[in-house]
Amino acid sequence: MFLKSRLNLFSTSNTETDYTSRCKTILAENKQLDLVMVTDKYANIMAKAARQLPQSSIRQLSPEDIVKTALRTNIAKGAFNVNSPTTGITSNIHVQYNAMDIIMYPLENDLTLIAIGIIDPGAIPDIYSSVGRHFPTKLKKAIIVDDEEDIRSSIREVLKKRGFDVETAESGPACVKAIENAKRNGTEYGMAVMDIRMPGMDGFEVYKNIHPISPNTKVIFITAFEYTQEEIAKKVQNDSIKVLRKPFTRADLLQLITDETNPTPKE
Fold first, then answer.
1. Which of 51, 75, 78, 159 is the right S-S partner for 164, CB 3.0 to 4.6 Å?
2. Which Gene3D superfamilies would you find in this protein's record (predicted)?
């Protein structure tokens, strides 16, 4: 028992050291940031890196004060259930507080990255990309659902080149099972690219099954022209659902992926 406890302590210490190193790298890559930290779902600070500059936007605020501010803002934005005992966020958030920009970015394992600075709006997508390169974000795990192998292969190639950890499913039930397994293991697919017309269980039915399990998973439907955008949105009760029309090009797919992984920041 004593050995096991020592091993767990060592593992936690190594993880926190690794997170601190990543925070320092993100800080170095983004000159407009003054502070980068990682918090767990209970708002405990696991790692942080800060600039020591007189003009720093964080001034005399401690990292703990900034976490409290971020969480208050988070609650105000309705990013999570205030009655829940945990405080994990479910989407990218950008807000301003006392002339400071606060960015909150959901990571795997119910962690949150919080970045503080005076940030130009045009730099925010670069900050999101920087975080994605150095942390296992929820947006970096994807599943492709299509009964045609050539479609799965072509989409998988594009997603892998964009840094996604990609899995494939040849049927609706296989996709639902994969989503359920991921949830049980404490992970989550950031994206699902699925065909609408599949034998047995079509894309609409798959969506209705996986959405309650993994509501943060972004879905891109693949279809020809048998459904309009409005019809698809109505069937899944989601006006912002993305649709990839067959035949599609690599550029078409890349644009949709970019739209989903770098959304317009919430003000």
1. 159
2. 3.40.50.2300
Query: Strands 191-195 and 165-169: what pairing?
Result: unpaired
Residue finishing a domain among 114, 134, 154: 134
Domain count along the chain = 2
Which residue range forms the structural domain that includes residue 81?
Answer: 2-134
The residue among 84, 118, 134 that closes a domain is 134
Report the pLDDT value the prediction gives residue 203, as an integer from 0 to 100. 96
161 and 125 within one domain: no
Cα(119)–Cα(171) distance, integer angstroms: 44
pLDDT of 53: 59
For residue 57, the domain's CATH number is: 3.30.450.30
Distance between CA 154 and CA 19 in Å, rounded? 34
Task: Look up tokens 């912002």; give the residue.
Answer: 240
> pLDDT tens-digit profile of 64-109?
777 777 666 654 444 443 334 444 555 677 888 777 888 888 887 7
